[in-house]
UniProtKB/TrEMBL annotation:
Record protein name field: Putative ABC transport system permease protein
Domain MacB-like periplasmic core: 55-264
Domain of life: Bacteria
Transmembrane segments: 52-72, 307-327, 362-382, 402-423, 444-467, 706-729, 750-777, 789-812
A Pfam family: MacB_PCD
Topology of this chain in the membrane: Multi-pass membrane protein
Domain ABC3 transporter permease C-terminal: residue ranges: 313-427, 710-811
Source species: Dinghuibacter silviterrae
Length: 829
């Protein structure tokens, strides 16, 4: 006789269905639902050990997906707050020779587009020029100063808190910074000590999900009164210098591709021969500049859709690992429910009802895991904020798009986790189930799933190690100069224009006095000046070396440096000499090249380059001189780019940045005091060179940390799954273990016996994961001009770690099973 209550089976009271059809239907529906929930809860409690493992894995997997979903939603929302978002395009400046694309265009391009290209509603330019802003006694060096066309307010969406366009427009934060809670409209700010600007409007801060940032918007025409006349005329007419971010608004529905020929032809129409031959303009959608323009020089976002795909794929794989645990453990639990399923079928339960019951159990467990995942996601958001650098907030989880994604995640996870076990458990007939004549073990399926699970985990471990090694390689690779303990002090701010700020005689005298004071301090090892330092974009200029003509159009990065720059930065001279004041003419007719420039010009050797003539600029008014030295190649750009040729000269008016090598912590306070003494009109703003260079690899750092965290989670989830399965296998083989012990088997033999069920799958996973991970990481490394190698040690590390986890988890149950009294083991039914 069968104890129905033991299997959770209840006998339903049946009344006259013909007399009360609606009531009967509703009652039966509710009763069935309550019955399924009741049985599901009983099974959850009965097998709480395995179910806790399921919950832990699923909740972690779902929390990872939730966090990535929030991050993805944030990334996809960039710039979408603009009313005309779909019709806004940026004008890029492209070089046909090396296929380079730049995110800014010549100042003269904006008016030309407005005049010559049909289908354009508005054209607006943004020219970032950092400078000092003053209001009474308040004085700050501001980097967010932007000169803008009036049409910018037609292209982008601004929320005016007070006032209107017309003069200086501030953000809310800047209005409070300079004027407190009082109204800013009608007040005056002085820019660069010489341009009084009247505030006509205050706008709300743009959201953090904006790639365009500003603090002050100044009418574009004011730029020409701030610059000297020569610079102003140069900006108006030059078609090669490209400092202006230029945006266009198209008519709704206008096909940008149809306008491409007219936009591209502007350089041929207005540029000189050099510009017409090598440069062109193109339109790039605003929607692409956050995730699809990391290859565009000067693009405000270095994020790449490739990394987003990687993050999403990894989060999904973590969820797959958790679901594999769920499926494996559910199938293992089926062995304890064979008789129950048979009794239910005898009692009249149909195949569909049984599927719904077991699927309901899976969905209930998944729902609990979903709630736990939410509970894990909220406190983990600050960690994701720190890793990604994005301003993520818990409120994002309540946004419509995110809520829809979370519901879809719940349903998909529930079906993925519960459907297969439901179909697997209920496929046998009632008689076979009651008599125990079934092969419901599903061992092959479990083995395949374990292999899949560990393949993913091992691949993530290998990926994490390779990425970490590559970033360590980039940080530790000799760059050809000494980057440590170098303090960077820009005279005119970090976003100063390369042509706007120049050093005159009186300022140079103050700079010399400042240098003398610093050199007298024992905690400072060296001081030098330059127009640009490694880690920041170098200006490219026209050069005409001996043996070439102006028509060859050779544009190379160049830097103006002080006489002691090479010595202070630790750069090696391989031929000739460095700059020297004693020579007397080095500031007017001397050039120093790197080795790559020598090769670019086709000269035999660095020694052969000494004495060669060179012109920086055009034939008419360019700087003429001779090569006096060649330095060993040093990396002045990111290491994902090949090392470029470069030229250095001494050009005092271009000295805009101090580089101070410090050796004592007290040096910073001394430098600040000396700065205040010599430059009371300038703002003290500093950074450290090594930190500036390391910041170039932010996206790769984010990838490294996230992949590392995910790899740790993958091996943890896989480990607890193996732990639970090992417990199940040990329980199922209790009698066999007892017999083996009676026959003399020891603990080691029992442990090896259990390990056989898992070691083969783990080794197979290692064999599958290694080539997959090698291929993927080799493709990733190809993006770097300088990269580490993928040695066998990485695969050995992943293999050792995975095998260790397997041996520890399975070995624990093997040792515990071997310690059980054989007499008790043989009594197990």
């Amino acid at each position: 006789m069968i104890d129905c209550d033991h299997f959770g089976i209840e006998v339903a009271f049946v009344f006259d269905t013909a007399r009360y059809p609606d009531r009967t239907k509703n009652w039966l529906t509710w009763h069935m639902l309550r019955h399924y929930l009741h049985i599901a809860w009983r099974q959850l409690v009965k097998h709480r050990g395995a179910n806790v493992v399921k919950l832990v894995g699923l909740s972690i997997g779902m929390a990872c997906c939730m966090l990535i979903l929030v991050y993805l939603s944030d990334e996809l929302s960039y710039n979408t707050f603009h009313r005309h978002y779909a019709d806004i395009y940026r004008v890029n400046f492209n070089n046909a020779t090396d296929r380079r694309k730049m995110s800014s265009a010549p100042v003269s391009a904006g008016p030309a587009i407005a005049q010559d290209v049909p289908g354009i509603v508005a054209v607006g330019r943004l020219y970032n020029r950092s400078g000092i802003m003053e209001a009474g006694s308040l004085k700050y060096q501001e980097t967010g100063v932007v000169f803008a066309d009036r049409s910018i307010f037609d292209i982008f969406s601004f929320h005016f808190l007070e006032g209107a366009p017309g003069g200086l427009v501030l953000t809310r934060d800047m209005a409070r910074k300079y004027f407190g809670q009082a109204s800013a409209v009608g007040r005056t700010l002085v820019y660069e000590h010489k341009a009084p600007l009247q505030v006509t409007g205050v706008v709300d801060n743009w959201p953090a999900t904006s790639d365009i940032h500003f603090d002050f918007l100044i009418p574009f025409e004011t730029l020409y009164s701030v610059e000297n006349q020569a610079t102003g005329d140069f900006l108006r007419t030059n078609w090669l210098f490209n400092p202006a971010d230029t945006y266009v608004l198209l008519h709704p529905g206008q096909d940008a591709a149809a306008l491409a020929p007219a936009v591209r032809g502007l350089t041929r129409k207005y540029g000189d021969e050099r510009v017409a031959k090598f440069w062109s303009l193109s339109l790039q959608p605003l929607r692409d500049i956050h995730l699809y323009a990391s290859d565009v020089e000067g693009n405000p976002s270095t994020n790449s859709i490739t990394y987003i795909y990687i993050f999403v794929a990894i989060a999904f794989l973590i969820l797959v690992i958790a679901n594999i645990n769920f499926i494996n453990l559910s199938n293992a639990q089926a062995l304890t429910r064979i008789a129950e399923i048979g009794v239910r079928k005898v009692a009249g339960a149909g195949h569909t009802q049984l599927i719904l019951q077991f699927l309901g159990e899976g969905l209930l467990l998944c729902f609990i895991a979903f709630l736990l995942g939410l509970g894990l996601a909220f406190p983990a958001l600050p960690l994701v904020r720190e890793v990604t650098g994005e301003a993520l907030h818990p409120a994002v989880l309540g946004q419509g798009r995110v809520v829809g994604g979370l519901l879809l995640l719940f349903l998909c996870t529930g079906l993925m986790a519960g459907l297969y076990p439901a179909l697997f458990i209920t496929r046998f007939g009632a008689g076979a189930l009651i008599k125990g004549r079934t092969k419901i073990g599903g061992r092959l399926i479990r083995q395949v799933l374990i292999v899949t699970q560990f393949t993913i985990a091992v691949a993530l471990i290998i990926g994490a190690v390779v990425i970490h090694r590559q970033l360590s390689y980039l940080r530790e690779k000799p760059l050809g100069f000494r980057k440590d303990q170098v303090l960077v002090l820009p005279l005119f701010g970090k976003a100063s224009s390369p042509i706007s700020n120049s050093v005159d005689g009186p300022l140079r005298a103050r700079m010399n006095a400042f240098e003398d004071d610093l050199r007298a301090y024992s905690g400072i090892q060296g001081v030098t000046l330059a127009s640009v330092l490694p880690g920041t974009p170098f200006v490219e200029g026209l050069v005409i070396p001996q043996g070439f003509t102006e028509r060859d159009n050779i544009f190379l990065p160049w830097a103006s440096v002080d006489y002691d720059f090479i010595e202070t930065m630790g750069i090696q001279v391989v031929a000739g000499r460095g700059f020297s004041k004693a020579a007397g003419t080095d500031n007017t007719q001397a050039f120093i090249l790197n080795e790559s420039a020598v090769r670019r010009f086709g000269w035999a050797s660095p020694r052969d380059a000494i004495g060669k003539t060179m012109i920086r600029g055009n034939m008419i008014n360019g700087k003429r001189g001779f090569v006096i030295g060649v330095v060993k190649d040093f990396n002045f750009a990111k290491l994902d780019q090949p090392l470029q040729p470069m030229i250095m000269d001494v050009n005092v008016p271009r000295f805009t940045t101090f580089a101070v090598r410090v050796s004592a912590p007290s040096a910073l306070a001394y430098i600040r005091s000396a700065w205040s003494s010599h430059f009371p009109d300038l703002v003290f703003d500093y950074s450290f060179l090594d930190e500036d260079i390391n910041a170039l690899y932010k996206a790769q750092e984010n990838l490294s940390r996230l992949v590392g965290y995910f790899a740790a989670l993958a091996i943890f989830i896989s480990g607890i799954g193996i732990f639970s399965l090992a417990s199940f296998v040990a329980t199922r083989r209790t009698k066999e273990i007892g017999i083996r012990k009676v026959l003399g088997a020891g603990t080691r033999t029992i442990v090896v016996l259990l390990l056989r069920d898992f070691q083969v799958q783990v080794v197979l996973a290692l064999l599958l994961a290694s080539p997959l991970a090698w291929f993927a990481m080799n493709r990733w490394l190809h993006d770097f001009a300088y990269r580490t190698s993928i040695g066998w040690g990485i695969f050995a590390f992943a293999a050792a770690g995975t095998l260790a986890v397997t041996i520890l988890t399975v070995g624990f149950h093997g040792v515990r099973a071997s310690l059980v009294n054989p007499v008790e083991s043989l009594r197990v039914d």
